[in-house]
Specification:
There is one protein chain. With 495 residues, this protein is mainly α. Helix content is 73%, strand content 3%. The strands form 2 sheets. Strands 5-1-6 form a 3-stranded parallel beta sheet, with helices on both faces. A 3-stranded parallel beta sheet has the order 2-4-3, with helices on both faces. Belongs to the UlaA family.
Length: 495
């Protein structure tokens, strides 16, 4: 069995390294395959592949730029104040698993690729048999899959350190595959509403969180079923400049970044290599803040470029192989929909929640102090604000990212300390991995194999409950959004 697994490992590693874990090429090839199945002319297939790939690469430039813009603050808070801490960031989390997996459990990180393969195949099978599973989304965000496979591998080994190689891989492959399918499936309906039928779901690290806060946001609607959203607010006088997303982002980031950079001081920034010796400190702050708005605009351009191609081409795949399915893609895709200012509001209020909880950890002498990584700080909370604003308005868009920020830091500190990842400097840190996965880990650690069964049953039941809540519109929202929307309006009129 080990020999067969090793052969599969070689084949899978090549595929994963060059396609599956390179989301731009994976999205491009999905578009290419979809257009070929739709029997489009070859030049349209090639054009679609290039536009989708380039669009996703534009998104990654914007995403990477946002992270780099935040780096002086992240590094500065850690070094300037001499905090010995764990960074909540998916890449730091992946590095922590790599550094500690052999020392702690006597295993190798390479097994995560096989775990990823098993989970991905299981996700596809679950969607293929959607008639029974009620699951409609395929998780296609490859870099996220690697990060989650690594952390899931550690968590299962923590619960069952003596479990042999093959049982570990298949057990967690089933659980992780279910999580991917169920989590992305939770976002299908709310994403269709947000994007007005763009036919994609979210495949990232906060899928349960997005769904939870989107549903809770409905409670913020007025008696007439409506709520004042960010895009409905027309500010008077000079405040009207905040109606422009680029201006609002620039000003808010100038205040946010400026305050922290002033605390860090020009001497530290020069010594750390972030700022040139002869550079004006004022203009350094201005440039750093404005680049945030630049990269956010680039990210939104990338989304608009590839989503249209992906939506159209996936019809070919769904009609032939996975009828009624949608692709689960990077959460950044939603930043081009709804209110553009919701992204900035979500980031700011999420940051407030995270920083307050970090202060609480320091005051209460937590064994693990968290340094807020930019990826969970921004991508979780900005996305939550976009959905919350769409379904519940301005108040929901401010409150729920703040609550998320508190939970991200507290949950990550607890689970990373308990399972031993904190000592290696990082944890994945995003909403689902500070809530859902700690819950799963407790069940498996204290209930043993029965706990595994409970986790699987919980995940299997969730889409069944979703389906029973709306059997008439559940699949229709994907197959024919306009018809679903008309049916939905008629129901509201009847009520």
């Amino acid at each position: 069995m080990d020999a067969v697994l090793n052969i599969l490992m070689v084949i899978w590693t090549y595929f994963a390294a060059n396609i599956l874990t390179q989301p731009a090429f994976l999205i491009g090839f999905i578009v290419l395959i979809g257009y070929l199945l739709l029997k489009k002319p070859l030049y349209e297939c090639i054009s679609g592949f290039l536009k989708a790939t380039v669009g996703y690469l534009i998104l990654t430039v914007g995403s990477g730029g946002l992270v780099n813009s935040f780096r002086p603050i992240l590094v500065g808070l850690k070094e300037r104040f001499h905090l010995s801490a764990m960074v909540t960031d998916p890449y730091f989390g992946q590095n922590a698993v790599t550094a500690g997996i052999e020392k702690t459990f006597g295993r190798t990180f390479s097994d995560t690729m096989l775990l990823l393969l098993i989970a991905f195949i299981f996700n596809i099978l679950l969607v293929r048999f959607k008639k029974y599973t009620k699951l409609r989304a395929v998780f296609t965000t490859g870099n996220v899959q690697v990060q989650q496979a690594a952390t899931a591998f550690w968590l299962l080994l923590f619960c069952f350190p003596d479990m042999r190689r093959v049982p570990v891989l298949f057990t967690m492959g089933i659980i992780l595959g279910l999580y991917w399918a169920v989590g992305s499936n939770l976002t299908v309906g709310i994403t269709q509403e947000l994007t007005e039928g763009a036919s994609f779901a979210i495949a990232h690290q906060q899928m349960f969180g997005i769904y939870l806060f989107a549903r809770l946001a409905e409670k913020f609607k007025d008696k007439d079923g409506k709520s004042k959203r960010l895009e409905d607010i027309e500010l008077p006088g000079f405040l009207s400049m905040f109606n422009d997303n680029m201006v609002a982002t620039s000003i808010l980031m100038l205040v946010f970044f400026g305050a922290i950079l002033i605390v860090l001081g020009p001497d530290y920034l020069i010594k750390a290599g972030f700022m040139q010796k002869d550079q004006s400190f004022i203009f350094y702050i201005l440039q750093t803040s404005l680049y945030f708005a630049v990269y956010l605009t680039i990210l939104q351009l990338g989304v608009r470029t590839f989503v249209a191609e992906l939506t159209e081409s996936f019809q070919g795949i769904s009609n032939s192989w996975l009828p009624g399915a949608v692709p689960g893609i990077d959460v950044a895709a939603v930043f081009a929909f709804g209110s553009s200012n919701a992204v900035t509001i979500g980031f700011l209020f999420g940051a407030l929640g995270q920083f307050l909880m970090i202060i609480a950890l320091i005051l209460f002498k937590s064994p693990t102090i968290v340094i807020a990584g930019f990826i969970p700080l921004f991508f979780d909370n900005a996305a939550i604000a976009v959905y919350a604003n769409n379904r519940g308005g301005l108040k929901a868009a401010m409150l729920f990212p703040f609550i998320s920020g508190l939970i991200q830091v507290a949950g990550s500190a607890l689970i990373a300390t308990w399972v031993g990842l904190a000592q290696y400097g990082g944890y994945i840190g995003m909403f689902d991995w500070a809530t859902v996965w700690p819950f799963f880990t407790v069940l498996m650690k204290y209930a043993g194999y029965i706990g595994i069964g409970i986790v699987v049953i919980i995940l299997v039941i969730i889409p069944q409950i979703q389906y029973k809540a709306d059997p008439e519109g559940y699949f229709l929202v994907v197959e024919d959004y306009e018809k679903w929307e008309e049916m939905h309006k008629n129901k509201k009129v009847a009520e």
